[in-house]
Design a protein that fits this description.
By secondary structure, chain A is an all-alpha fold. In chain A, 66% of the residues lie in helices and 0% in strands. Chain A starts with 10 loop residues before the first helix and ends in a 9-residue tail after the last helix. In chain B, helix 2 packs across helix 3. The chains are: A mainly alpha, B mainly alpha.
Chain lengths: 77, 171
């Protein structure tokens, strides 16, 4: 099969770029919404439950940056 | 005498500092955008924000300021999300305190360094302008799409950057 030189826009290029953009958007949205939930008084276990992950996983990913932001956090639901 | 031999140790130390400072600034940008990895587009934007570097000077002289490049990245993401049927979110939905962990350097960024630093051969002490070349080379991916969507001629810019690296015009 002769190799093709696909264009950067349109067709599969748009679909593959959508995968990249969706991953980035999911990360940005998670960061923003976890922070919002904690600012509104949610506990870590509640955030973890809503995301369908363990409390340890949420802690590991977000604790440092949110502690820096001075958010008062509830430990238990 | 080659360009490399003609340059002082101070020049090379300055270039090393430029590259380290660039990676630090690009990491901050990637963290601010909640990116999982340090991608070439982050390096390009961070470079344009520092006009003391050879790469930054080149980009800004070509009209590519950090602000303009970040707008181009946003436009690329909006188009890509649109392809998946996802509309743009309001800015407030995405406001977050940046992550503290340094994003890992993406394979695409490592390849951009490798490609760019090969330009000009061993006679050239690599600078951030080499990295511009390495970032602009691929015909697919985010950076190529950013230029295509903005209607900018990436090949022409790549040609100019490559010529300047080979001539050793900027340090």
């Amino acid at each position: 099969m002769t190799p093709i030189a696909p264009p950067p826009l349109g067709g599969p290029a748009d679909g593959l770029a959508a995968v990249v953009a969706l991953r980035e958007l999911a990360d940005r949205l998670e960061d923003a919404q976890v922070e919002l939930a904690l600012r509104e008084g949610w506990s870590w276990p509640q955030v973890a439950q809503a995301l369908g992950v363990t409390r340890q996983a949420v802690h590991k990913k977000h604790l440092a940056r949110l502690a820096d932001a001075g958010i008062e956090m509830r430990r238990r639901s | 005498m080659s360009n490399h031999q003609g340059r002082s140790l101070q020049d090379r130390q300055t270039q090393g500092r430029d590259l380290r400072a660039l990676v630090d600034a690009a990491n901050d940008l990637a963290a601010r955008r909640s990116a999982g990895a340090l991608e070439p587009e982050h390096l390009l934007i961070a470079m344009a924000a520092d006009t003391r570097s050879s790469g930054g000077q080149f980009l800004v002289e070509a009209g590519l300021t950090a602000e303009k490049l970040e707008q181009m990245l946003d436009a690329e993401r909006a188009r890509s999300l649109g392809a998946a049927g996802v509309g743009t979110f309001s800015a407030i939905d995405l406001v977050a305190t940046p992550r503290r962990t340094r994003p890992k350097i993406a394979r695409t960024s490592r390849e951009a360094f490798d490609r760019g630093f090969r330009v000009g051969g061993h006679a050239i002490q690599p600078t951030t302008l080499n990295l511009v070349v390495g970032i602009l080379m691929p015909d697919l991916g985010t950076v190529a799409r950013m230029f295509e969507i903005a209607g900018l001629d990436r090949h022409q810019l790549l040609g100019r950057a490559t010529a300047e690296v080979v001539k050793g015009k900027r340090r």
